[in-house]
Amino acid sequence: MNLIAQLPALAIITPLICAPITIVLPRGRAPWVWATIVSWLTFAVCILLLREVAAGGEISYHLGDWPPPLGIEYRIDLANALVLVLVSGIAAVVFPAAYRSVKPEIDPRQSTFFYCAMLICLTGLIGVTITGDAFNIFVFLEISSLSTYALVAMGARRDRRALTAAFNYLVMGTIGATFFVIGIGLLYQATGTLNLADMKQLLAGQTSRVVDAGFAFIVVGIGLKLAIFPLHLWLPNAYTYAPTAVSAFIAATATKVAVYVLIRFLFTVFGFDFSFMGAAFTWVFLPLGIVGMFIASLVAVFQDDVKRMLAYSSVAQIGYMLLGLSFATVEGLAAALVHVFNHALMKGALFMAVACVVLRAGSHSIQAFAGLSQRMPITTWAFVLSGLSLIGVPLTVGFISKWYLLEAAFAAGHGYASFLIVASSLIAVVYVGRVAELMLLRPPAQEGPYVLPKRDAPLSMLIPMWVLVAANIYFGIRADFTGDIARRAAEALMLAAGGAP
Amino acid sequence: MGEFSPALIVMAGGLLAPLIPNGWPRNAFMLALPIAAGIQLFALGFGEYWNYELFGQSLTLTRVDGLSRIFSTIFLIAIALNVIYAWHVRDVVQQAATLIYPGAALGGVLAGDLITLFIFWEIAAISSVFLIWASRNRRAFYAGMRYLAWQISSGVLLLMGIVLYYGATGSLAFERFLDGGFALTDPEVLFIFLAFGIKSAFPLLHNWVQDAYPESTVTGTIVLSIFTTKLAVASLARGFAGAEALVYIGAAMTAFPIFFAVIENDLRRVLTYSLNNQVGFMIVGVGIGTPLALNGAAAYAFCNILFEGLLFMAMGAVLYRTGTIKGSDLGGLYKTMPLTAVFCIIGAASISAFPLFSGFISKGLIIGAAAKEGYFWVWLTLLFAAAGVFHHSGIKIPYFAFFAHDSGKRPKEAPMHMLIAMGISAFLCIFIGAAQIFTGPLGDPLYALMPYEVKIEDSHSAYISYTAPHIITQLQILLFSGLAFAVLQKTGLYPPELRSTNVDSDWLYRVPGRAFAGWAVGASRATWNALWAIFSDRIQALMERIYAVHGPEGQMARSWPIGFMALWTAILLGFVLILSFIS
Fold it and tell me: Is the dihedral of CA B347, B353, B356, B361 positive or negative?
């Protein structure tokens, strides 16, 4: 059997089979080591997949050799190969750091379940991205969401509010999933198929209320998962009260995968033949993206909790992605994809830095960051550099995102949007600068709850964090890698959607 | 050192400096950097170095030509002087910023294309704010934030301009923008123009200078005063030479700060107004755009960095020794700080363009160019502004700090390292100013550095500084200006140095025509206060509103009950449904 040909299945099966094994391992380090190894293996598989796709074009894998549209098909093109590498890559970086970070944050009796849930969550996210089957997307979305609810709730050991956060997230996530499955049901009624490619062909030319309603349900359902403003209300609490390693993982991956699913449905399943596409771009994604960029950024400015600040900043950054794809041009779509990738790198690094602070200070209040450069210089600089990336300073990935977005805005004739991008990135300067000033120039607390020992985080957390910071800079300088893949992926998607190439 | 960029030498040194033991080893290391970079700059010679690839574009890190060489040279001299002046500083944040920020400005001047320029533009903006924050108090923090907002706005405007310009021309070359058939009002170049305008503090875009610079530390203010605005002038000279709008913008810049400088009590803030006015002269030169005018602008920037820096250093020394810089609290310091007083007077004489001092030969080029190109009103404004400079920088600064009424303060003389830095600056001011007498115009060392060839066509050429008409005109301006100051001072009409920054000005109206200067002061201040009141109230109200909605307790940041979230979902679903049904 040719192993390369089985790569799509391996990407799913590796974490899926290994997750239950975690439970039977003895408590302590073993589950963590196991999960870390699995995440690295998955990452390796995904990189190989990306290489295959970049070289040989789209891969179609028939699960169990059942041919589509009856069987389940895994279909990998550049767009989802990029997201696959992103998700597994973030996992491969966050998992090694999780042990020290999570140890004081969760009940030790839950440690095996924790790593099991992390692996299941990874499986779900990869499954959503890799599959070419609509119902399969729903199943994997639920797999990842259910495990995330559990992971958020595990933060209750330190702060009981994690329980309400997880409960709210559960209710909202379930509403989203229900809407999504209703939407798929409606499309199934209209086409009689669940395979995305097949669905596209059968949908072509149909104008019925069923399809219209299906579209609306799918957009809102996914919108909830990706926290489009004003459907973001579950997100700040979930990110704030989850164990910090979980925040780092889901902030960098879960919403990105949802953005991918949205793009997949909009461009691969519906396409520009449907008149509601244009309406949705103009009246839903563009305004909500812009409003989210501003309101969430402003809220972030006034937050006294750094995790919460980063969570609101995520909502604002999702606004950028929506803005990019609402231009409905190749440039805009490429900008959105680039930002999906880049934002994962910045937010991953930032949350990892917060994890280091939480480990030493036991708090993610902004007060704990005062004078941090004298107590934890390595962590401080990681935070500052990734913060600069979030602002969009040259030589970081944030700059690349900003560049592509501005270029797309001008090319699409939305010149005013460039002003808005610029203005909202000014707000990012304020909320990042506020923390940076506190860390670099204020004296550390001498008494009270925020007194820190002069001791940086353990290497097992510093190294992964700096890997992400280095990625922020590496992909900021070698922008052609992400830019090229995103552009090719965007061209293919636009072609499939029947838009202007 | 191969093709290594001088700017990177300084910046890398700034990153490494914290690793070196604090005290003299680190200071010596920091001083070695601008020297090494200077050697490298002249070893490279004219040409383009270190091409690299970004976004599939071939970019140029270092471009040494006439324009970038004169600015780089003076930047490196200024870095060295700053390091010497700040020898006593042990704060690692300030030390690193004192190298990284000027290094970035140097990189911007040497940038061979727009992307490289933008990169250094942003690094300079971000690294410089640490010099303001280094005061480590609330005022400085908020001033730094406002400063950062201005600087980053400039950066993003530049980026937008670059993206548009690239879209229109497919080129990232940093050359004269107006050559490509663009008018200044085309958005492709207008954004870039505004970005440069913010950094060079065009009128109405200037406020960040007065707001932020005086909040910095003793040494930080000096560093800040040098690089940002001069980087902008160099960029304008490269991109917008000969843009006529600049002539009028620059003329306005030379004139309007004078009124504010006259009434300001904080002597460092007086110098920040003077900084606006000085940059105005350079911008007029850039706007005229002839080789003579551009040479004048570059030469003036060169001299200005030395004498303006010298004045800032002298005021910094006063602040360092007395702990205050309010004109009303100072006076009589010459008794115990004689050397500082002498250096300050040399700086004042230079900025006022006294013959034998550096301002004399460089300011003459710009004013001469304005006359030659027939800008009569601009020429007149420049003369008025030159007199005004003498008034507030030439007389006011040394007079109120070192003479005037005796404040009774008897501080020690400035520390040795400050005296050395000031002494070198003062020497250079006199050397540049007087060299021509001995070498003749053709052998003038400053002329050798100029970006364009110095052509002396006839005996009336502005390049020949020491001619009877030039000297007499200049002395007339200075003497009458000095006389006015003396008369106003003796008769008690001169706006007194009051502790309050808000002088009660109604007496000016009760005796109309009593003093035109006084009226101009009152009017411009009243306008300013009125404008400021309108805006500050609005801004205050806006900020409160934003906080009420977005603050931790605001509607946008609250943890909403779950039913509310579901309601939103239903609303959005309904909206999208209707939308897809009707479209």
Answer: positive
Contact between chains at A430 and B572 (C-beta distance less than 8 A): no
| Chain A residue numbers touching B118 (CB-CB < 8 A) | 394
The reply to whether residue B550 touches residue A302, judged by beta carbons under 8 angstroms, is yes
Do A175 and B566 count as a contact with CB atoms less than 8 A apart? yes
In a domain, A71, yes or no: no
B134: nearest CB among A212, A426, A441: A441
- Within 8 A of B144 by CB-CB distance, chain A residues are 437
Same domain as B160, residue B28? yes
**Domain boundary residue, one of B217, B240, B263:** B240
Q: Which domain holds residue B527?
A: 506-550
Number of domains in chain A: 1
CA distance A48 to chain B (A): 25
A5: which 2 tokens?
């040909």
**Interface predicted TM-score (ipTM):** 0.83
Classify residue A443 by its DSSP letter.
Answer: P
Is A342 part of a structural domain of the chain?
A: yes
What does the DSSP assignment read for B210-237?
Answer: HHHGGGS-HHHHHHHHHHHHHHHHHHHH
Question: Closest approach of chain B CAs to the CA of A36, in angstroms?
Answer: 34
Same-domain pairing of B332 and B351: yes
Is residue B234, in this structure, part of any structural domain at all? yes
A472 vs A398: CA distance, rounded Å:
8
Of all residues in chain A, the one with the smallest CA distance to B547 is A302
pLDDT of B512 over the 60 cut:
no
Distance separating alpha carbons of residues B278 and B374, to the nearest angstrom? 21
What are the phi and psi torsion angles at B363 (to 5°)? Answer: -65, -35
The reply to whether B253 and B176 lie within a common domain is no
Average pLDDT, chain A: 90
The answer on B521 and B443 residing in a single domain is: no
Residue among B148, B159, B166 with most chain A CBs within 10 A, to mutate: B159
Q: Which residues of B touch A480 (CB under 8 A)?
A: 55-56
Residues B168 and B290 placed together within one structural domain of the fold: no
Whether B296 has a pLDDT exceeding 70, the answer reads: yes
A387 in helix, strand or coil? Answer: helix
The mean pLDDT value of chain B amounts to 85
- Chain A CB contacts of B160 below 8 Å: 406, 418-419, 422
Structural domain contains residue B444:
yes
Between chain A and chain B, the number of residue pairs with CB atoms below 8 A apart is 155
The closest of B242, B243, B230, B244 to B282, measured between CA atoms, is B230
Question: Do B220 and B257 lie in a common domain?
Answer: no
Q: What pLDDT, in 10s, does the model give residues A355-413?
A: 999 998 888 999 889 888 888 999 999 999 999 999 988 889 998 998 899 889 888 88
Chain B residue closest to A299 (CA)?
B550
- Does some domain include residue B575? no
Domain holding A464, by residue range, is 274-501
A213 touches chain B (CB under 8 A): yes
B48 backbone dihedrals φ, ψ, rounded to 5°: -115, 135
Widest Cα–Cα separation across chain A: 70
Residue B55: inside a domain: yes
Among chain A residues, CA nearest to B159: A403
Contact yes or no for A212 and B577 at CB 8 A: yes
According to the model, what pLDDT value does residue B406 have? 82
How far is the C-alpha of A307 from the C-alpha of A236, rounded, in Å? 8
Residue finishing a domain among B171, B206, B240: B240
Q: C-alpha distances in angstroms, B196 versus B134, B229, B287?
A: 26, 9, 13
Q: Which one of B153, B190, B559 makes the best mutation probe of the A interface by having the most chain A beta carbons within 10 Å?
A: B559
| Residue B110 in this model has a pLDDT that exceeds 70 | yes
Total of domains in chain B:
3
Residue B419 pLDDT class (50, 70, 90 cuts): very high
- The reply to whether A298 falls in a domain is yes
